[in-house]
Structures are given as C-alpha cells and as structure tokens.
Amino acid sequence: MKRAVYLDYNATTPVDNRVLERMLPYFSRRFGNASSNHVFGWAADQAVELAREQTAEALDTHPADIIFTSGATESINTAVQGLACACHSRGRHAVTVKTEHPAVREAFHSIERQGYDVTFLDVDEQGLLMPDRLDAAMTDETTLVAVMWANNETGVIHPVRELAALAKQRGAVFMTDATQAVGKVSMKESGADVLVCSAHKVYGPKGVGVLSASARLCIPRFLEGGSQQRGRRAGTLNVPGIVGMGAALELATQEREQDAARLVRMRDSLEASVLARVPFAHVNGLGAPRLPQTSSITFLGVSPDRLQMSLRSVAVSAGSACSAASSAPSQVLRAMGLSEQQARQTLRISLGRPTTEEEAGFAADALVKAALGERTKAKN
User: Fold this and answer.
1) Which of 4, 92, 125, 132 is the most buried (most CB within 10 A)?
2) Mean pLDDT of 68-72
3) How far is 135 from 70, CA to CA, in rounded Å?
4) Is residue 244 left, alpha or beta, with left meaning phi > 0 and alpha meaning psi from -120 to 50?
5) pLDDT band at 1 (very low <50, low <70, confident <90, very high)
6) What does the alpha-carbon distance between residue 202 and residue 249 come to, in Å, rounded to a whole number?
7) What residues are labeled active site?
8) What is the rounded distance in angstroms from the CA atom of residue 134 to the CA atom of residue 128?
9) What SS3 state is found at 209?
10) Full strand arrangement of the beta sheet holding 294-299
11) Three-state SS at 130
12) Are strands 281-283 and 194-198 parallel, antiparallel or unpaired?
C-alpha cells in the first residue's frame, strides 16, 4: 500500500490511546447500567459523574449544566427547537449566520417552517460576523441567537464573547456551536447560555456529544422516556462514550497550548510553501483569527474532484464532511464572497495532534504537484 497522510482532522479524529484505555473497562468488566441501583450501576454512574465534572471543567461551566447526547447534531436540534418552543411567547424572531454548520442551518429552517422569523446574517470577506451586524439585526422580538465559535471549513474564529454580550443586552439566549473550537481555544468566560460540541473532534469516540445549558432555560427534552440526566434527556447512558468524552476533553484542555503552537507552525509552513509555488492559490480567511490546524485553500481553475483524485496519498476534503455527498458549492465560501466556481475549487486541509512536520511538508509538496499538474491539464 502506498503511503497515505491523513489531513482531514476537522471531519473526525482517531481516539487517543489514553482515552481508549479509560473507556475499555466500561465495555467489559464495568458494564453496568448507570441507572441501576446496585454496585455495578453505581460504578457506572460514578464514572459518568467524573466525566461530567471533566467536561464542565473543560467548558468552564457547572456539572449540573452538562447533558450528554449522541453528538453535536442532537444537541443543536434539542437546543434550537426546544428554545424556540420555550421562548415563543416572548418573541418569535431568531438570528444566526449563513456560515453555520448544516446542523444549525437546518434546525433554524425547521423553526422557520413552524412560524419563526429567522434572520441569516452575512459575514465579511474574511468570514467574520462583526458585532455591529448582529446588533442591527436584533429586535425586541429576538429570543435566540446562534453563532458558531469557529468555522469548520475555514477555521475562522468569531468574537463570541462580544456577540454573546450583545445578545444578552437584548434579552436573547445566546448559543454557540463549539464543536471545532473546543480543545483549540480557551473556553473561559464565553458568555454563552448554551454550548454544544462532540467528542470525535477532540480524539474521543464517535456517537457522544454535549449540550451545556443551564436548567433555568427550561429546554424541553428532545427524547421522551426515563428520568436519566435529571430528567433532561431520556435513554440509557452510553457509559464508555461518556467516559471517553470526559477523558478527551480533559486531555485537550491540558495540551491545548502546546498542540496549538505546534499546529499553527506546521499550518503556516504548509500554506507558505503552497502559496510560494502555486500562483493561482489563495487562503480563505487568512486575515482573520483562525484555528491553528485549519486551512482553506482555493486553487483557481482546478477542479477539486480532479485535485483530490491526484492527491491519493493525502486525505483532505472539499468542505464539511456532513455536506460531502452534496454537489452544491460550499455555502460558507459563497457567503464570504467567492463565486460558485471558486467555491468548488477549494480544499480544506486540517492537521491534527498526530501530524508530524515531515507529513505536513509531504502534503504541501503533493498539493503543489497535483495543483500544477491539473492546471496544466485544464489548459490543454
């Protein structure tokens, strides 16, 4: 098998071996149901509560605010649709951003069909939502504002603390999708009333996520059934997954600064190498604050499908993994002002904790070779 370098960590990450070690006992000898009133259940429940504390510490919130879910998509739908239901008597206007993840956009389209007036805000050419744009969009009827912390395609980081403060001044609930940001930026004093994320983006297992929301918000539960998680989400708890999420978030918080320093150095070197040798390439969001591991590069005049075919040795993506099956151009890039054609000529490169400098250099050389080769073919 030829060498393959994985640079699609924004889509998913491998489970860290240290995380896996903590999870394994809860698949076998510590297999109890966390709701059972006996020694096996108590052991499982104790593990869940430890993970709840680890998660709360990583997200800078209180353990009682943590609801474990099947992932960020469930958390987002629970929050958006639940808050729309709970707050509709105070107002039926909500605000979000055109560059949100599809899970957020579709959840807002859902409440729109239920009679909510939803404003989808534009961003600037760097992909940033400026606070004055949010301030101008809110009205006395605004009850919910949702702005992702960091974009999954470009890595652009929104000023969530300032945006949250503006929303609160208007009496609106502020929600942020921190799925890409957690473990990469500090979560301290975000100001968010609701925060969601997934374990599999931070070297934890797939199929587990978090909805962090104060009980005072009275979000109706999405799943009916038992009284698990203080009655806020029914269903038998995924104990191994929850243990893995707590461990992954604990490690990500401890190693965030050293990971970020190493990743930003490799990302900047990769971008500089590509831009120096490919005159028709440009980096999206280059002038904005970005996550340390993410690069969105447009190769003008080159089909991303053909480029990816030429890049068999390097795993990258043409955008969000959740939209990979769609033939439509990236809504994120279109909102930033790229043409439909330019949006289709863009690749997302995302590095991760296991990435080495040698692999990043190998990927840069492969990108350059593929881009120049495909551009030549397109001219002939």
Assistant:
1) 92
2) 97
3) 33
4) alpha
5) very low
6) 7
7) 322
8) 11
9) strand
10) 281-283, 294-299, 346-350
11) coil
12) unpaired
Q: Which of 54, 30, 12, 28 is nearest to 245 (CA)?
A: 54
Contacts of 8 (CB under 8 A, 6+ apart): 315, 316, 317, 321, 348, 350
CA 190 to chain centre: 16
Q: What is the distance of C-alpha 265 from the center of its chain? A: 22
CB-count exposure of residue 198 (10 Å: 0-12, 13-18, 19+):
buried
Take residue 322 and report the two structure tokens written for it: 């959740």
Burial 160-174, CB ≥16 within 10 A → b, else e = beebbebbeebebbb
Q: What is the identity of the amino acid at 221?
A: R
| Model pLDDT, residue 304 | 77
Residue type, 145: V
Count of beta carbons in the 10 Å neighbourhood of residue 92: 18
* 312/303 Cα distance (integer angstroms): 15
* Contact yes or no for 143/356 (Cβ under 8 A): no
Would you state the structure tokens that stand for residue 175, as one six-digit string? Answer: 């929600």
- The reported pTM is 0.93
